[in-house]
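User: I'll paste a sequence; please echo it back and then give the predicted structure.

Assistant: Echoing your sequence first, then the prediction.
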Amino acid sequence: MEMDTQPHKKHHFGTSYMRFLVQHCCLVITLLISTFFTTTTAFDYADALSKSLLYFEAQRSGRIPYNQRVTWRDHSGLTDGLEEGVDLVGGYYDAGDHVKFGLPMAFTITMLSWSAIEYRQQIEEAGELQHTLEAIKWGTDYFIKAHTSPNVLWAEVGDGDTDHYCWQRPEDMTTSRRAFKIDENNPGSDLAGETAAAMAAASIVFRKTNAHYSHLLLHHALQLFEFGDKYRGNYDASVGVVKSYYASVSGYMDELLWAATWLYKATDNKMYFEYVLSNAHSFGGTGWSISEFSWDVKYAGLQLMLSKLMREEKEKKHMAILEEYRSKAEYYICSCLNKNNDSKDNVERTPGGLLYIREWNNMQYVSTAAFLLSTYSDFLENTNEKLNCETGTVDHEEIHSFAKSQVDYILGSNPVNMSYLVGYGPKYPKRVHHRGASIVSYKRNKGFIGCTQGYDNWYGSQEPNPNVLVGALVGGPDGKDNFEDRRNNFMQTEACTYNTAPLVGVFAKFLHIENHKTVHDCNSLLVASFK
């Protein structure tokens, strides 16, 4: 009888094959769980992220590029600036009309850039970094054009009053395209400051991938800040036509502090840090306790950014003023969390739990709050600190959970099960207050649609918009969680670029966390299989 001289192969397929089985079972389980929860309680942040970036393509003005993904849009505003002898083609329409307003456009780019700075890795992991960079660059390319000399910045193209008389596609525009500027004799420190902040923030974003462009943006940012600081005044006093639409209620001091903060972050030049310290009291940086953060009011954002500097050893000698900035930043966070003693110091909430600041386009304040809460939660986690509010101590997880509750409300976890991010989920607004989306696409019907023809045939229609404005965050529900999906209900159904911009980073963060949980669960399953 022959001896078996081969090694015993009882486990020749055991370890490796078991690992293969577990990995594939883990994949199947993940897909099943994902499918189940997508239809019940969890949300697809990857889909929300990709759709949010599509929205900026729908808002493009100028010559549409070859790689445009929103195919119902075409070229528009190709003569912008012609009357004034300057090239102002490009940029973004802010909302559902066709005026290019400089202040909200700049804030949009600042928030997109901040998203890319805070969550670049997470956005890249999701495969959306290139689209994010394109969205930012579409805005900054326009700002470069609009900043025609050191002390001249073109503030607006189009006139809100005449624009609102018409309801037509951007491709058919017949309304005035007159351009308005700020200069030494007609100052606009708020607009110059916000545009400087946007270009400084964007310069940080492009530093790794396009050093020359980054340097160019920083050059413009430095000039704009100097211009805004030297020739002080509110831009709406110089550009009167903007007052009914984007009046600078907070003034210009917050934007100058905001711009200096971003320039310090972009350059590490102590001059800008000294600026925010020396002007902390006189400009309201350490005086204002604010419970909103928006295109107009920047205090909460700059207070939060500056409070983080307390952790840097090189700034220890400035602790007293930084502590005041941090105190105001934490007031904002605590007010969102309903953790201040006086109810008047807390942000109201709807019965469904949504932060509620005001009736008109409330979602803009929700998205910026979600962003600031998310970044501050990260800060506390990284520094192993807690937040001390008047009614108790809060850890980073509680802040993160509340930010997530606001985002999930936006995506459909609300009393009416409505996603307020257009195109996401099974139920979302179908009659968005948006000229281009509400009229048959120029690509499908190139026949001219006139000013009043749009009102007669499209504005009053009860039918859903023929074009879905994917990724737009509409104004949202009222204080009782009620929402009416009517085109003429502009307080609730109009979307703006600065609504969606902060969500890009937040969606990427939440997606990263969800993916990390999935990998952790699978790894736990894998380890358990070998015990």
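Residues 160 and 217 are 29 Å apart (CA to CA). The mean pLDDT is 91.
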